[in-house]
């Protein structure tokens, strides 16, 4: 149980900072046999040494390297995507909502909310998050990552850049057309 | 194409990583790209100009708009790609001065205060990084649905 390596990444400011502090002070200390690594800056000094099983790593420029041998990554937006790219199980939780440990049932909601970072209200279900974390740590949930590759096809940079280029062309074309004509 | 990416950044965000990765891909494809933002945390060889884009005072916005317009003229910029509401104010002003094309990526839900609803500074070519962001601007800011395209984060 204690051998699992779990990490969260996000900045410690604004809404994401509130999430990080809540995880570090109220959720992670419940699992004292697991070491949690928290990446992102600035390190909140007032809580930095409160729990022995929580390690604040600060801002790093090679997050994907640090993710590499993690058992679970918690995060929203690009953090979730970068973990998926490495084939690591992801618990999607962003600044607006909790999605869950990614599976084929919740992936569509995850994509719609940018893995929990976007939602019409800030409403994170910490009880569900805690229960899922307990289930993962005790191996009652063993996440599958086999569907990640198909999901990530829509996030491939060349494909995304090509779609953005189409929009650029559209913007350039509309700039040349007088408003009263277009 | 000559493109200027405009961001308001005081610390590392997903928007910065998005803009840098996209700009790197555009350079690989033969485009000329400049980044303009308050700070830049991601390590990159891209051309970067520091301006206080996140400052909200009207005077600073006007000065930033003039500086960006001048930069566009000097560098032959054809399109400004803005990545935040504060950046959109500056892009909007600069585009009025130098007649650049204008694209916005919305990385977050927007505050729907009266000014935001009354005056569209985002332009008519918007990218939303997910459906929740598109729903937000269409519902809360009254932006025409046909002007918003969901294009996901590039990895």
Describe the structure.
The complex is a heterodimer of chains A (182) and B (155). Chain A has 182 residues and is of the alpha/beta class. Chain A has two domains: 5-146, Rossmann fold (3-Layer(aba) Sandwich); 152-182. Chain A is 39% helix and 15% strand. Chain A has helices at residues 14-27, 63-67, 77-85, 107-112, 126-137, 148-152, 157-176, and strands at 5-9, 35-39, 54-58, 72-75, 90-93, 98-101. In chain A, strand 4, helix 3 and strand 5 form a beta-alpha-beta unit. Chain A starts with a strand and ends in a 6-residue tail after the last helix. The relative contact order of chain A is 0.13. Residues 178-182 of chain A have low confidence and may be disordered. Chain B has five helices and seven strands. Chain B has a single domain (2-112), classed as Glycogen Phosphorylase B (Rossmann fold, 3-Layer(aba) Sandwich), CATH 3.40.50.2000. The longest helix of chain B has 18 residues, at 58-75. Chain B has a seven-stranded parallel beta sheet with strand order 3-2-1-4-5-6-7, sandwiched between helices. Helices cover 40% and strands 20% of the residues of chain B. The chains are: A alpha/beta (182), B alpha/beta (155).
């Amino acid at each position: 149980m204690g051998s699992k390596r779990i990490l969260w990444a996000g900045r410690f400011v604004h809404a994401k900072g509130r999430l990080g502090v809540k995880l570090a002070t109220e959720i992670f200390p419940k699992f004292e046999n697991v070491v949690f690594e928290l990446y992102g800056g600035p390190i909140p000094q007032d809580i930095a040494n409160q729990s022995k099983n929580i390690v604040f790593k600060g801002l790093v420029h090679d997050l994907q390297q640090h993710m590499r041998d993690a058992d679970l990554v918690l995060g929203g937006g690009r953090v979730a995507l970068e973990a998926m790219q490495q084939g690591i199980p992801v618990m999607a939780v962003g600044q607006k909502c909790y999605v869950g440990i990614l599976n084929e049932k919740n992936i569509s909601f995850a994509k719609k909310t940018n893995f929990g970072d976007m939602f019409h209200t800030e409403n994170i279900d910490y009880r569900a998050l805690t229960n899922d974390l307990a289930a993962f740590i005790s191996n009652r949930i063993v996440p599958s990552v086999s569907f990640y590759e198909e999901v990530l096809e829509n996030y491939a940079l060349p494909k995304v850049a090509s779609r953005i280029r189409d929009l650029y062309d559209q913007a350039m074309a509309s700039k040349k057309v007088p408003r009263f004509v277009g | 194409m000559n493109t200027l990416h405009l961001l308001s950044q005081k610390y590392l965000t997903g928007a910065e990583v998005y803009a840098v990765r996209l700009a790197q891909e555009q350079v690989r494809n033969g485009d000329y790209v400049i980044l303009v933002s308050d700070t830049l945390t991601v390590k990159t060889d891209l051309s970067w100009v520091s301006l206080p884009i996140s400052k909200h005072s009207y005077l600073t916005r006007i000065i930033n708009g003039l500086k960006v317009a001048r930069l566009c003229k000097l560098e032959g910029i054809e399109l400004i790609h803005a990545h935040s509401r504060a950046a959109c104010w500056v892009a909007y002003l600069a585009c009025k001065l130098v007649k650049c094309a204008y694209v916005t990526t919305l990385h977050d839900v927007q505050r729907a205060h009266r000014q935001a609803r009354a005056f569209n500074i985002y332009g008519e070519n918007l990218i939303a990084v997910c459906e929740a962001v598109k729903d937000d601007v269409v519902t809360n800011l009254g932006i025409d649905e046909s002007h918003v395209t969901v294009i996901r984060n590039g990895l």
